[in-house]
Design goal:
single chain; 376 residues; alpha+beta; Dna Ligase, domain 1; five-stranded antiparallel sheet; 11 helices; 16% strand
């Protein structure tokens, strides 16, 4: 049954079309919304040490999702995940091609990539994203051969990236899904609504001036000004939107809001059905684009952008209204479940990896990420 949620939605033609119009947050930016990661994860590390002692195995989180390398804690390949899933999920995943950057002339590589795109029936606009990496690193919207060539030139040699069809939908969310290995059905642990930040033109002010006038954008201008350095003097027409961030990542400037009120049995059943085709996936976040909030609640009309594993966060905690107590409570609960599922997987015969394997994957991802193009 779909709950009767009477909520206004952002209309078509807008950057965030289809997203629900929620109440204004109490705080434009919370005092701790952008505090360093170590502050929030120190209690998680301490709890993990205790859980490792309790279960007598520190590496249980790395077998929570046996189908994914290191459960998706680090170093997992988007391409590998997309190619091992079953038909039901593949039908929801936006079409893509995977490109490996080799040591050759960028023009030759561009020509080869364009042939791949033609063969796959893909055309601009496309979303470029690194095969390894998280938090929106290196994600760019590609609208032309020139932009694609620039992306190829900047991208590190030996790395891989995906070129994925841009969704026709504007609304975006991250759905955190958990299914215990000994249970037939999963649960939605969290829904994060991801709003692209915009400034509204007045016909007189430049992009730079609009950013500096905006209560929230001004506090994040260290993200937005470098990203739009080539158009800071552009005067935005009256009542027109200027999008400040494309990637749906909080650390890259997207606005996250708590969408847990929109969890429905219909949506859980839909995820159960399609994720049956991904044996060995029990814990993680599915990032999606969707038509509008009402159809999403029915489990209809959405595209899958990515499937993330053990390192996923329940992103709703970065809603500026979330208390610091609830942030810690959610993170600690996530990791207790992670260990619990890992313990069950170990009893079923899955072996935990070595610390060396984890370290190698982390080093490889870190080596590549620092050379990725700037995120849109």
């Amino acid at each position: 049954m779909i709950p009767d949620v009477n909520v206004a939605m952002i209309p078509l033609g807008k950057v965030n079309a289809g997203m629900p119009i929620l109440h204004e947050p109490k705080r434009v930016i919370s005092p701790f919304e952008f505090w360093p990661t170590w502050f929030f994860y120190t209690p998680v590390v301490l709890q993990s040490i205790a859980l490792s002692a309790f279960y007598r195995d520190w590496a249980l989180p790395l077998i929570t999702n046996p189908a994914i390398k290191l459960s998706g804690m680090v170093g997992e390949s988007k391409n590998d995940i997309f190619t091992i899933v079953g038909k039901r999920i593949q039908e929801c995943i936006l079409p893509f091609v995977t490109v490996r950057k080799v040591q050759c002339d960028s023009g030759d590589l561009l020509s080869n990539v364009k042939k791949q795109l033609v063969t796959s029936g893909l055309c601009y606009p496309l979303v470029a994203k690194p095969d390894l990496g998280c938090r929106g690193a290196g994600v760019k919207l590609i609208n032309s051969d020139e932009q694609l060539k620039n992306y190829i030139e900047i991208f590190p040699v030996s790395g891989r990236f995906l070129l994925q069809k841009k969704s026709v939908y504007n609304a975006e969310a991250g759905i955190f899904y958990i299914r215990q290995p000994d249970e037939p059905h999963g649960k939605i642990f969290s829904i994060t609504l991801k709003y692209s930040p915009v400034v509204i033109g007045d016909g007189r002010s430049t992009v730079k001036e609009l950013i500096e006038k905006s209560p929230r954008a001004n506090k994040l201008k260290h993200l937005y000004l470098p990203r739009h350095s080539n158009c800071l003097d552009y005067v935005v027409p009256d009542k027109h939107e200027f999008q400040l961030a494309f990637a749906g990542s909080h650390s890259r400037g997207a606005i996250f809001r708590n969408g847990n009120q929109f969890v429905t049995q219909a949506l859980e059943k839909k995820l159960d059905k399609i994720l049956e085709d991904f044996e060995g996936f029990n814990y993680g976040r599915i990032d999606i684009k969707f038509q509008d909030i009402q159809t999403l609640m029915k489990g209809e009309f959405f595209n899958i952008l990515e499937i993330n594993g053990a390192s996923s966060e329940a992103g709703h905690i970065w809603d500026s209204d979330t208390s610091i107590r609830d942030i810690f409570k959610t993170l600690l609960k996530q990791y207790r479940i992670l260990y619990q599922i890992g313990a069950k997987q170990k009893k079923q015969g899955h072996k935990t990896p070595t610390f060396g394997a984890l370290l190698q994957a982390w080093r490889e991802e870190k080596r590549l990420v620092k050379f990725y193009p700037m995120t849109d």
